[in-house]
Amino acid sequence: MSPIQEVMSPPGGAGIGESLGVPSSMGTEDTTNVRKDRHSTEELGDSEESYAWHASWDDFNDGLASETDSDNDPSSSGSDDGESLDGPRGGSATSTVSEKRANLCSIRSIVNGVLGADCGCTKDCTSRMCRGDVMEAREATSKATEERKLQQHTREKLLNVMHTSSINETKTFRFMFNGITICNESFRLVHGFSVAGMRNAMTWCKADANRRAQLDTSRASSSSSKLPSFGVGGFAGLGGTERNLAAQVWIDGYVSTHGCQMPDSGHVHIDNVPWGEIHEEYSLDTKEECRPLQFSAFRKVWKKEFAHVKKRRRKPFGECAVCAGYKSQLKDERKDPNQRARTMALYVAHLQHQQLERKRYYARRAKGKRGRCISIIMDGMDQSKTDLPHTEVALKSDSNMVETKITGVMVHGRSFNCYVSEPQVRHDTNLSLTCLHHTLMEELKEGPPVDTLYVQVDGGSENKNQWVLAYFVLLISLGLFTKIKMCFLPVGHTHEDIDQGFSCIARKLRRCNAYTFGQLVEVVKASFQKENKPPNVFQIGESFDWKTFVASEVVEGISSWTDNHIYRFSWNPYHKQVQMHYKKFDQSEGYFGLHESTFVTSFKAVEREVAKDPEAWDAHAGVLLGTKDKPPGQPTKAANIDFTAPKITQSGKEG
Q1: Is this structure's pTM higher than 0.85?
Q2: Domain count along the chain
């Protein structure tokens, strides 16, 4: 038997003190001794007795509201750390609920537990109370418990002492009892509330209407011990203490906001933010609701419930400027919850916008995999990873490195081509169109006949220029495609499935050396040995001069068109030219075109209208780009970099 249990079962038999978990000898103690500091065991005499008495009272008080309110608040726990009442501080676990309600209003519990208690605020709040007033308050709590309305009663009492600022709508509590200002601990003791019950009620009172509804919903699902799904992560907690559940809800919101779903797996990646900073942000966000978990407990919850969330070892892509601005603003507004909520709403709306843009891209990708069209994504690998000579350990001086470039062209459901350009090849539009044209000709030669082409590229200058538009004009004019759509994702959110292929190359390069260009090509080929369908690796020593080959005065005369993200090319039979419709984002309602009044929401509807009136194509025409006959011959070779030529400095002098 533990020392605490020995004190709680005195040799003299059971008395009123036993039902309270108080030694029978305490009944003869003067109340002045009871009013000593509960942490000062010397003034109470025997240290074990003093600890047992106070521990038993705490358990009694916590256990009362925990048991009677469990139907309404399953997340509440009798002890602050989620331990059961029959644990190390046990003593009241064997008492029935009815006994606890009776003890709540007993004279001894009022004298010893309230009037004789030290609230810890140094103002001795309970010294100004009388036994009759406390008895009345506790009887109200006991009645609410009997009617199973303890949660509602606790909230009503707190709402009566809550104050809302007229300036920033901040909610605070001014605890009072019979016109006397007291501390929150005295308020809790007077009414006989448990620590967890009062904490939950304070959280509910401070919340807005939506948050209150969420709290009521989560606490009403005690039969399943699960929380409802929050955010886009599809989280459903697996039960546990209130603090664990609060941590799970916070982590789910954090992952939903900052995570990036991987296109080829169920993993979600977040930025490489130190765990200490994440835990600090969690603590600041949840400290008003409940006592935050310590760092080690927080990490355990994360590992157990969110094992699919991974941190990037490094962030390989530039961060969206809008996202960075919102993150900084949220950090600065932590002391103003209302403004922070408004900023968070804007941030979430921005993330949802880019997610919808991605879904449109995924829809086009699915069409390509089903063979209904050719869907292509083209991008270049980070050049800093392919500079030569490449070593496993970073070199101290890299000013004289030889630059190479890997351009990837992925045809969804068909092939993945890696074009490794030699150092003398210029990294410009000629190189991009050379890689794209080679891939398209291979697909048209070997694949099934299709009339639609989707091209997904980033917003780099080598992809968004007049020569790329002119190249698409050539493809439409020659009848290779009837519709071409060139799409761009929002800046800062352009990394997609093709980057998964580049990551295979980067991982291989981190484990081996490549001093020459030939060794680099071999490393690229070896990077995909474990893949079921490895990519085709091509070595490019020179590119074609597509700029000269597709040059068009009509296209060159177009201006102010680069601010949009979606461009649709097709043939206009009325004007007998290639037309380009455009819109700001993929989820925008309609396309703009040649006239100020042009606004096309459905091209199928335009085709039905044109079937009745062929001149309708004039009203719905896109920007006219002219036509392009097949040029004689093939493109000439583009000029490579001449490493023997003297370098010209910014001042115009030879270096």
Answers
A1: no
A2: 2
